[in-house]
Amino acid sequence: MESFLSAMVPVGNPAGGQSLLGTIKIAVLPIAKVFTMCFLGFLMASKYVNILPASGRKLLNGLVFSLLLPCLIFSQLGQAVTLEKMLEWWFIPMNVVLGSISGSIIGFIVASIVRPPYPFFKFSIIQIGIGNIGNVPLVLIAALCRDTSNPFGDSEKCSTDGTAYISFGQWVGAIILYTYVFNMLAPPPEGTFYIEDANLPLKSPAKDAPLEQVPLLLQEDAPEELDALKRGKIKQFLVFLHFKLNLKQILQPPIIASILAMFLGAIPFLKRLIFTTDAPLFFFTDSCIILGEAMIPCILLALGGNLIDGPGSSKLGFRTTAAIIFGRLVLVPPVGLGIVTLADKLGFLPAGDKMFKFVLLLQHTMPTSVLSGAVANLRGCGREAAAVLFWVHIFATISMAGWIVLYLNLLF
Which ranges does the record mark as transmembrane (predicted)? Predict the structure, then answer.
């Protein structure tokens, strides 16, 4: 495809001045690479080859999430970040929050019009409002920067900066995912998303019981001393905070890697000790770089393999599924473009950093978050989430190419 497009399109100055067809080439090639690797994963998981069965894909997903992705984030973010840059990049996490708020508002409007079947109203809002701000943008940036004719200049700097910007916003996305999304996807009063099973006994009804009915601490004898009473209240508050924020779910390996990279990168002495090429501990960073390079192909093979199961048996129906796809891929990106444009006009973004703006725009353009599907599975509506993820990612290969063409034309 690359040679075919190159024959048709004269490539101009890599830093700018691209024709419309040249911009289309730059935008389509990363999507084509992603689609090709996903198709290979799909083929490996098919019954004709069966190298990636469900158990193998689960292990591969675990390897990516627990080791390869944290290594990529740690090495790239740690090398790029400084204390001054963190203060300069403050709008990246703010953009994630604004994107979740605006996306949820759009999701509420769409769900109010379409009226999804009960009890999937909040589910529809989440599927529209929460996009993939981590894995898919990292893949796209890697595929885009690998091309020497990319409009952002040097391939290595393009990849390092893009990965650092994306990684810097992931910790906010995790907090949103395991607080807001987790609570929005709570089962209905019947205790299950599948009402026909509501008469079945629940194994753990206390998990979704009202907060006032859930004991945060075991009942103990009333303390005789005032100090003991104060200690008991502090302990109860900490348990309440842990219960509400789901800290164990928030502190996942990629988030720990992001926090560690920001901490070490912000302290000049530690940064020189670990992240510079002549540092005594650079061997550790270099090992993380090598492992991180394996993240992109592994996650795409796993994603393609997961599509082998198809849309599954969803209760959403065609109308609701189509509305979710339209809302996520067509309605959300223009609002995101307005948010980023306004922030640029107000001087909130670093002047002249086009990769920074491009990453902000990508955060509003991605398909539904894969991790929101994991939370949905945990809350009991995994079949519907799998169906939405299947169709959204299929149509996203088209929509993302179109939006990237628009963004590159606006930026260059």
Answer: 20-46, 58-77, 89-111, 123-144, 164-182, 250-270, 282-308, 320-343, 355-376, 388-410
Distance CA 250, CA 274 (A): 26
Distance CA(388)–CA(390), nearest Å, equals 5
Estimate to the nearest angstrom the gap between the alpha carbon of 304 and the chain centroid: 17
Q: In this predicted structure, what is the pLDDT of residue 212?
A: 40
What the block records as the tokens of 401 is 């190419």
Q: Any idea how long the chain is? A: 412
8 Å CB contact between 311 and 305: no
Angle, CA 30 vertex, CA 76 and CA 133 arms, to 5°? 50
Can you tell me whether residue 131 is helix, strand or coil? strand
70's enclosing H/E stretch is helix 69-80
Amino acid at site 43: L
Tell me if 57 sits within 8 A of 45, measured CB to CB.
yes
Q: Which residue has the tokens 């209240």?
A: 233
DSSP SS3 for 368: strand
Q: What are phi and psi of 43, to 5 degrees?
A: -65, -40
H/E stretch holding 7: helix 2-8
Kindly give the parts of the chain with pLDDT less than 50: 1-17, 198-223
Q: Where are the beta strands (DSSP E) in 247-405?
A: none
Which residues make Cβ contacts (< 8 Å) with residue 39, sequence separation at least 6? Answer: 304
- Say if residues 182 and 130 touch (Cβ distance below 8 Å): no
Q: DSSP string spanning 225-260?
A: SHHHHHHHHHHHHHHHHHHHHTHHHHS-HHHHHHHH
Q: Give the residue from 372, 385, 379, 376 showing the smallest Cα distance to 208.
A: 379
| Angstrom distance (rounded) from CA 91 to CA 169 | 9
